[in-house]
Amino acid sequence: MRNDTIPQLQAPLTINWAINNSCNFACSHCYSREDTHEELPRDVLYACLEKVARAGVFSVNFGGGEPLLHPQLLEIAAFASGLGLRVSMNSNGWLLDGEKAVALKAAGFTKVGISIDSHIADVHDTFRGVAGSHARALAALGHLQSVGIATSISTVICRINSTTIDELVEMALRHGAGQLNFHNFKCSGLGLANKDDLDLTPDEWKEFYRHALVVKKSVKGLDVSLDDPIIALLGERDAGSLVKGSVCGKLSLNIKANGDMTPCGFIPIVIGNIVRDDLRQVWKDSAVLEKMRNKQPTGKCSGCSKYEDCLGGCTARALALTGDMNSPDPHCWGDDEPSR
């Protein structure tokens, strides 16, 4: 029996596409620094985007690496937009000046997310490994807004910022961001290597989400987004999600710079390659995706009254830290033993 209440889609709604691996930052939590795969040439990318559009995908979100370092980003985005795909991007903002914002608008970008991990410039700059990056990120928001591109701020919640929710919200409001995404800390790549220094304890995650949910319901003029399934333990869920538990492999799919498809950017299991494989067939027949869509409760998830909504929490985090995607999310603060 499936975990979700909607029929399985014929194709992902969104593709998160890391079109390059190069980056000008040295972030402490980066999941892709160890990814040295080759990058697809433009004409091959075009053909792959055509396949994606024919499959019925709605939107493509470009990432990396830093996508603005890709010399043909604007051409690729314009091609994708011309196919009817909704085009967005995540960026660190360093290269995004007024001229670039105009070019992004012309290429069809509808939304750009800028990564900002603290309201304090020095804290953000240290975390991202580049002095002056905080100021450039805030300036990027203004450049994007001036040309009519919707903006969001992406914040990776960890030890440097988990007690500064109010300050982060105030910063987002002051700089006109439409959305503030609080991303739960993943344990992939450098995130795993630096886990002991950056990750919160389960009880600290509980306190963070308690406060964040209060703010989410009370703040006006800003969409505060929480992408972590374990908020179900507090009687909440992501109101924007069509599915329970993690959206990865249910609504979205990740494509790496060399075309490899994975369930999400934080699960390094290759399930196909967009260059040679049929997207719809992979989406329908992948044994890995099938397992993710039909997770089975183990350990303290067995008998948990919140499992129906939480579905074990973040699959990527469980897999990274336990080797089993059915294991309870290590961030979960629920009882250690199943209820009787």
From TrEMBL:
Keyword Transferase: no
CDD domains, sorted: Radical_SAM
Necessary cofactors: [4Fe-4S] cluster
Pfam family, one: SPASM
Keywords assigned: 4Fe-4S, Iron, Iron-sulfur, Metal-binding, S-adenosyl-L-methionine
Highest taxon above the source species: Bacteria
Positions of the Radical SAM core domain: 9-223
Transmembrane segments: none
InterPro entries: 4Fe4S-binding_SPASM_dom (IPR023885), Aldolase_TIM (IPR013785), Elp3/MiaA/NifB-like_rSAM (IPR006638), GeoRSP_rSAM (IPR027570), PqqE-like (IPR017200), Radical_SAM_PqqE_MftC-like (IPR050377), rSAM (IPR007197), rSAM_sf (IPR058240)
Keyword Iron-sulfur: yes
Protein name: GeoRSP system radical SAM/SPASM protein
